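Students often ask why inverse folding is considered easier than folding. One informal answer: many sequences map to the same fold, so there is more than one right answer. In these notes we will look at a single instance of the problem. The structure comes first.
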């Protein structure tokens, strides 16, 4: 791509993002195919959009793994999958008190959102009760904290119960394109995942849905899943990079470079200008020393460990944020810009009515 063509592309992407317009498919593909030599220009353009809507704030999130391993699903990327030979901790449900204690330590370190995650296809009714008790314990100690729940595929009525219990958001990632999905999972479908995200939104939970990259997907797959997510209109979008666990079908895949990760993050910032774009799993091993550049694109990140792998020490994350010229978002600060924030409130108030999830 010539310098002139790149300049025209970045101007168009930035202007469209600031007008809340999606890039064209050709523009998205051109961005992903841009040269490594042009990377700083790409990051600078995405950073302009990020600063417009989120300033220099970084929202911190923390995962609480409530149930680990022994999942009946066969998602190829997951160390907890059916048939996994990965050496991970396997345990049944931890108690609400233990989960709340874990959350309280993360909140004290600066986490503004706690994500309660459990392995499995989806929750049984008694599992929803356990999670409800955990939400009560967490919010009893820290009422201002956001609680996101991630329990897999939801049955009718379960999202409503979680909202009534005090959950603020529900996470269920699309992970990859519809076309590529059959290559990574056979025990449920792409449409199953889409329907769960919609169900969460209909119940008044803030939809959280993202993807995983580094699984052999093409640029077309990346654009497809990015646009599919935009159609769902989530309020937060986690961008994960494959952690290739030994003992899983994707254990040998090391396809990503730091530069490709940054181009993917830039695409998400242009497609989701006023949405919480979260730097999630795998950032440490794939971005490595270029993690600070990612903060110019993502306005949110996980603090601490992931489900079955260790993250960067929290103190190092906080130092990185400060050294890069960013600040940790406080509990009293509003994460989303005004119109998007108002939409989240409207969804919650409209739960159980005919108000569509993506009004």
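Output (designed amino acids):
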């Amino acid at each position: 791509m010539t310098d002139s063509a790149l300049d025209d592309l970045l101007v168009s992407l930035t202007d469209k993002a600031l007008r809340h317009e999606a890039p064209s498919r050709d523009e998205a593909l051109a961005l992903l195919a841009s040269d490594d030599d042009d990377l700083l220009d790409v990051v600078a353009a995405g950073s302009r959009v990020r600063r417009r809507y989120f300033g220099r704030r970084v929202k911190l999130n923390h995962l609480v793994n409530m149930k680990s391993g022994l999942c009946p699903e066969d998602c190829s990327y997951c160390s907890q999958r059916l048939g996994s030979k990965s050496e991970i901790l396997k345990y049944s449900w931890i108690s609400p008190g233990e989960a709340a204690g874990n959350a309280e330590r993360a909140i004290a370190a600066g986490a503004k959102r706690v994500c309660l995650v459990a392995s499995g296809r989806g929750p049984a009714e008694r599992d929803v009760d356990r999670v409800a008790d955990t939400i009560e314990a967490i919010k009893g100690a820290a009422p201002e904290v956001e609680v996101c729940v991630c329990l897999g595929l939801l049955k009718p009525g379960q999202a409503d119960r979680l909202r009534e219990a005090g959950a603020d958001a529900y996470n269920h990632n699309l992970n990859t394109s519809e076309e590529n999905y059959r290559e990574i999972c056979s025990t449920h479908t792409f449409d199953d995942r889409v329907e769960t995200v919609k169900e969460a939104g209909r119940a008044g939970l803030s939809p959280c849905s993202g993807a995983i990259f580094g699984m052999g997907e093409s640029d077309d797959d990346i654009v497809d899943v990015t646009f599919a997510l935009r159609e769902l209109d989530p309020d937060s979008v986690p961008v994960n990079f494959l952690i290739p666990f030994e003992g899983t079908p994707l254990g040998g895949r090391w396809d990503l470079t730091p530069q490709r990760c940054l181009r993917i993050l830039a695409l998400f910032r242009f497609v989701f200008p006023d949405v919480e774009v979260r730097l999630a799993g795998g950032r440490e091993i794939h971005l490595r020393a270029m993690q600070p550049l990612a903060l110019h694109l993502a306005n949110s990140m996980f603090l601490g460990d992931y489900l079955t792998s260790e993250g960067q020490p929290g103190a190092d994350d906080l130092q990185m944020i400060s050294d890069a010229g960013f600040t940790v978002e406080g509990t009293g600060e509003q994460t989303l810009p005004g119109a998007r924030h108002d939409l989240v409130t409207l969804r919650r108030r409209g739960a159980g009515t005919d108000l569509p999830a993506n009004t």
